[in-house]
Amino acid sequence: MKLTIEDVRSRFIKHFDGTTGSIYASPGRINLIGEHTDYNNGFVFPGAVEQGIIAELKPNGTRKVRAYSIDLKDYTEFLLDDEQGPRATWARYIYGVCREMMALGVPVEGFNTAFAGDVPLGAGMSSSAALESTFAYALNDLWGENKIEKMELARVGQRTEHKYVGVNCGIMDQAISVLGKKGALLRLDCRSGEYEYFPWNPKGYQLLLVNSCVKHELVGSPYNERRLSCEKVAAVIAKKHPEVSSLRDANYEMLDEIKSEITDTEYRRARYVIGEVARVLAVCDALQKDDYETVGRMMYETHYGLSKEYEVSCEELDYLNDIAKEEGVTGSRIMGGGFGGCTINLIADELVDNFKKVVTEKFKARYGKEPILIDVVIGDGARKLC
Ligand code: GLA
Q1: Which tens digits make up the pLDDT trace of 176-211?
Q2: Protein residue closest via CA to atom 2 of ligand 1
Q3: Model confidence over 256-293: pLDDT tens digits?
Q4: CA dihedral of 223, 381, 114, 22, whole degrees rounded to 10
Q5: Which domains are seen in the chain, by residue range?
Q6: Model pTM?
Q7: 349 noted as active-site residue
Q8: Using CA positions, which residue lies closest to atom 10 of ligand 1?
């Protein structure tokens, strides 16, 4: 069910002193293509979704943040000036955003807050970025005179992941959560920070997420280790090609030159990234020509790469990809960090109903539970609701 302002407001009133504050929202995201390219300084091509986080905040005249997670029914308090911060992970996201906004010179004060979300957790749709962006946007509005520009708000969220949660993520999730625009995908150059909106209005096709419900958890996952492999390979290439500062600058020939100096695993991972950076640009070109067959083919290539080269898939996601292929789905692949979560599927309109039926039946027959199907609607980025 869609989360509403009233769901959050009623709890805020109940939980605190009966008064109301300001309400903000930020979305989760899909990513059409460009996976594990962001921390390699490459391109990504995400879009914001309608699902997200809604939070109500009200200054409380102290140095204390009193936070209530409506979904977890969990309450925590922390002092803005405390060096350690709270222990609960959900609260560390809020604490991290407060601290990083303060480090940018925003005179954040204590506040009461209650929040809830309807981005499925662990689905690879960036529920944590939605939480970070909501608070970064809100604090900028309440105490920062909206002076901090949007890309910097995204970096506040990213630094929160790095410093307070321990996930060395790229910038994609936070950037799209802040910059998202209804009806448009965003091509972001993760090195320069430049971006361009592409209208997403596919004629005769739609996007469907199939959530395997295998819990995706990047904290403590091999995600950070993937990033390290990429950085290592880039450093080895740079010894011969000093112009290469990340895999974004590398090509297959350069990689082959240094093959004997790296492990097979590192070679495969780097090969995937080099191919994926190029695929994002190819997909953007294809979209401008309404060439959805090429978009779809690239999505399957990405899935193959994520599964066999980058090794961030799992049996359930590979099975969902196989079903999509058998049913004539135009494009299908793992979405997000991997290790569980969703596939994203580009499907011709006339095949959608049948695919939904078949994928549900087959997945249930093999794993004993139905996958969750989510029709993708591209929505807006971070904003104040009232
Ligand atoms: C996670 C990270 C992103 C990105 C994706 C993979 O969502 O937070 O920065 O690396 O995985 O593309």
Answers
A1: 999 999 999 999 999 999 999 999 999 999 999 999
A2: 169
A3: 999 999 999 999 999 999 999 999 999 999 999 999 99
A4: 150
A5: 5-200 (3.30.230.10)
A6: 0.97
A7: no
A8: 36
